[in-house]
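so im writing up the methods section and need the Carnitine O-palmitoyltransferase 1, muscle isoform record in one place, dumping it here so i stop losing it
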Amino acid sequence: MAEAHQAVAFQFTVTPEGFDLRLSREALKHIYLSGIAAWKKRLTRLKNTFLTGVYPATPSSWLVVVMTTVGSLYCQVDLSMGLISHIRQCLPSSRYLSFQNRTLLSATLFSTGVWISGILIFRQTLKLLLSYQGWMFEPHGKMSRGTKVWAAVMKVMTGHKPMLYSFQSALPKLPVPSVQATIHRYLESVRPLLDDAQFSKMEVLAQDFQNYTAPRLQKYLVLKSWWATNYVSDWWEEYIYLRGRGPLMVNSNYYAMAARAGNSVHAILLYRRRLDREEISPVKLLGLVPMCSSQMERMFNTTRIPGKETDILQHLVDSKHVAVYHRGRFYKLWLYYSGRLLGPRDLELQFQRILDDPSVPQPGEEKLAALTAGDRVPWAEARARFFGSGKNKVSLEAIERAAFFVVLDEEEHCFHRDQEDSLDCYAKSLLHGRCYDRWFDKSFTLIVYKNGKLGANAEHAWADAPIIGHLWEFMLATDTFQLGYSEGGHCCGEPNLGLAPPQRLQWDISEECRMAIDGSYGVAQVLADDVDFHCFLFTDFGKGRIKRCRTSPDAFIQIALQLAHFHDKGRFCLTYEASMTRLFREGRTETVRSCTSESTAFVRSMADPAQSRCERLRLFKLAAEKHQLMYRLAMTGAGIDRHLFCLYLVSRYLGVESPFLAQVLSEPWRLSTSQTPQQQIRMFDLEKFSDYVSAGGGFGPVADDGYGVSYMIGGENLITFHISSKFSSPETDSRRFGRHLRQALLDIAGLFDAPPNKVPN
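--- predicted struct ---
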């Protein structure tokens, strides 16, 4: 028990002989080192805030400006054109300041003003350059002279070793589209889904809204866009995520897959340290255009706190521990020793101590996390009633204030080529587990399986999937190519056997609280059992062959999804594809309505045996071009759905009824899709080390009678698909949809490979 004694800095006893005080030098040493580390972090954040604020300038550049100005005075050259003399006259008289010192101070003030002015001019210039989006709409491989000049200037202005948030203040604001443009694009998007009578009715509703209701709502929205950093993001986070009262599990949270565990936790902590120090480079499109990094701020030390009407996101500046769950027991694992981050071998030791712990769960402890899997109101009520004081409050705070949550899962999951449903079981385990062995409120839960494979379950309110994807790529590359393992399969290094073991969290779960846990568990279990998941690796071809068809890989897959859905259900449906808007400050996502008149025309041509191959190719190219245009419009702030969503919220605030907006927001997304980005960091060669590519991730279906499809283009010859639906719907079958999707991909590729006179069936 030496470690337990060292954890106490001082002890005292009162005896008849007097007051006896005993100090622990070792504990005081740790307290001192922890304090030093905390102050170092504060100073680092202060330094980074300053460096980000003056980017691309540096303190040394300020010194150069000052020295140049002062040197010019000694050479009797007044670069300030009299301003230094004017500043000197305005300085208060003092017997401590000689004429020479007053001149030096005036020159310094003038130089500082010039330096700050240069920074402001740079920022405004960069903001103007970033507002240019013509490059996105130019044909592939054909760049205009103006865009070439723009690219050259951008390369110069953004190439000076930026920190993570260096470009934040220079990013433009998300523009508010005109009502007329949004209404036009909306009507165009629903035309292939409605018959003539339905479309005429929708046109009347849209025109009435545009002429009478929308102008007033638009004025308020434009006013908000002037005042707020982003006119969409705060409302999107609150009303789409935090105000949802249904379970987070399946409905909101998503998952990511990977393999190899050993060093993963340490790699994640290294990422957090780089994030805190802002040493991560901003993600750039084409290597030139920086994207908003604000979502990364809440990746760690963040928990969603339940409320009766709305949840809140609790984010801490720092956290020195992780919470761990194993076989129904919760632990608090400290990440630092003597002010230093625990090494991989130390973490392995601590996890092994948890695995070797023979203790059993306390009454009510095993399924406690089911509260986070059920409806939000019962969880909010239970949290206020049973976790507001005593050991329950202390233990709950240990979980909610942790850097992230770790599950040491007793199951084994991985991909088996000879077992068709191996990835299906893997996906369901990551998405919902047993409904009580994931803390669904944490920003993300790292799940480590018994066989060393791992994955993550992420809460959606704080950020979108590409943010977790960025962390995931870093973790996989660091684990494999930097940290490595010993010959015996252990993490490298020697463990510190003097580390105090992880702290077992203590609970006092009453019978009433157990009833609340069982209620949430029952709701979650029904939801989890209804999820029909199918994942598969498509290896017939990847982006290499698609690009040889001179088509965008995303457009190719989206059109294949339309063809697969038509074969599956015999009709078209409203389709959601997530597109990012991170070219703007605090941007998140916009919807690309992938079911267009052009894509439906192509799909119908594939079902018509009378259509020639040339005609099908022509229709396919039109559909692909239209999809790319819709995607680019969404990325540049000219989407449809976020604008209509915000107009609807303004109408609710003003108490204005709009049949048009009510109809728009009630339309179900029966095909919800999303592409998981790959190679955001480029820490290794994707083609050379293809076995180290993540299988991506997925999410639950949005509509009860629809499909959720996530896909990741893993390289030149691999596309991974994650398909979800509900068993309770007689219209859906994830595996059947997967078969249709495989065939659709092959059929479309066959159009480019078939002989000129052949008409594919």
